[in-house]
Amino acid sequence: MEDIISKLAEIEAAASHIMDDVAEQKKQLAREYEESIQNFDDTIDREVQEKSETIRRELEVRMKDELAKQRSETETVLSQMESYYETHHSQLAKQIYDKILRM
């Protein structure tokens, strides 16, 4: 009977040792899992940052191009208006004068 109790004590000690090992493995797996999540998050953050920077640069280039185009169109319109004014200055002044007198 004492042998059986002794063997049961050995089995219990072995089981306890196994449970301790399992608990340690579980902790290690949890650390590895957390590390993997952190690495994934860092990678995603870096990719998002790079993509955002690329989009920002592209939009900045488009904005500069659009601004240059608008500036060019505005200068063309102003030039046309000045040319029209220079050509028709007397006629415009006469029309304004006539409208003022008719009131």
Structure characteristics:
103 residues, mainly alpha, 0% strand, ATPase
What would you note in describing this structure?
The structure is a single chain. The protein is mainly α and 103 residues long. It contains one helix and no strands. Keywords: Coiled coil.
**Strand composition percent:** under 5%
Helix content: over 70%
- Rg calculated over all Cα atoms: 42 Å
Distance between the termini: 131 Å
Largest sheet: none
Tally of individual helices? 1
Shape: rod-shaped
Q: Could you give the count of β-strands?
A: 0
Helix/strand-derived class? Answer: mainly alpha
Mean pLDDT, as a whole number? 93
Which series of helices and strands comes N to C?
H
The stretches of 5 or more residues where confidence is low (pLDDT under 50) are: none
Protein name: ATPase
Keywords: Coiled coil
